[in-house]
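## tool: complex_structure
## caller: assistant
## args:
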Amino acid sequence: MHRVLITDSLSKAGLKVLEQTPGIEVVIRSGLTPQQVREELKSVDAIIIRSGTTLTAELLEGQDRLKCIARAGVGVDNINLEAATRAGVLVMNTPSGNTISTAEHTFAMMLALSRNIGPAHASMKAGKWDRKSFQGTQLAGKTLAVLGLGRIGLSVAARARAFEMNVLGYDPLISEEKCKELGIQLFRDVDEIVTRCDYLTVHTPLTDETRGIINADRLAKMKKGVRIINCARGGIIDEQDLATAIESGHVAGAALDVFVDEPPTDRRLVDLPKVLATPHLGASTDEAQEKAGIAVAEAELRKLQFTNAMANIDQAISLNNTNASFHNTKGSSNPKPTLLLLLVQQLG
Ligand code: 9EZ
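## result:
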């Protein structure tokens, strides 16, 4: 029996996938302290988490039974990957399930920022009828720069094209041809793309390379009146530098769904009237949560199958009893790489 621990909420559909699989025992525990997570981990083969559980080196150390960690959703920032690797634990995430939800939230934020929906709504709810204070700007005809052209960045770019925006893009990995196909003008220099846009949206992971990629230096190069959106990861845009650029009037406004600290302890940005803020809602849709749950349950099952198969291979090799149909035809003395390859092909 494989025991699978779930410490954050998983969609009903995802739970069903796990519960309907023979040989899987689901252990649901929420609100655990790190010590309790460490204890629970000792008696499970796999754990499924979202962003609410942090798996530190301390928690992962000496977990002999644990084989897999699955993160429902994109970021693996809350998992110590080096410690997991040291402990021989596979880590998997489900990067595609929230693409459209995050792209749509980015668009909701871009539109709301442009039309002052936040302040106008607050004004009406306060009993006023103020039609003078909230004049906005159109998106059509404006230039949007998309920094990071992965699934979400490309999805935002496609929507921007439908809104008749000129779309510029930067990504170290994307091809010229792909951009051409999608109507994105590709730039190979961050310092150049930032000078050309009326709107900038970031869709990169948070890495040493992207932390503060939008800083005081680059903000100063941007057109006066630029609007900035971050629905990706807190810290891609330097928070203090952004606040300064908004206060000076150089940046017309920012829409932020993500923060360096969540919830933000430093309220400087959130408190600015020109900042529209939401509490990391990019993937908070019925559809994205359901997809993340199913995807992670399926990923977990594939990994457990994989681990099982690897154990069988190890056993077959140690017993010198390898299945002949799996034998390495190139005559290697170690059949494991070939078997692994077959296995990986089977697992897709
Ligand atoms: C970096 C990136 C995108 C980027 C995209 C991916 C690891 N990585 N880094 C700088 N997948 C835009 C600017």
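## assistant note: The first helix runs from residue 12 to 19. Residues 147-148, 150, 170-172, 204-205, 207, 209-210, 213 surround 2-methyl-5-phenyl-pyrazol-3-amine (CB under 6 Å). Handing back to user.
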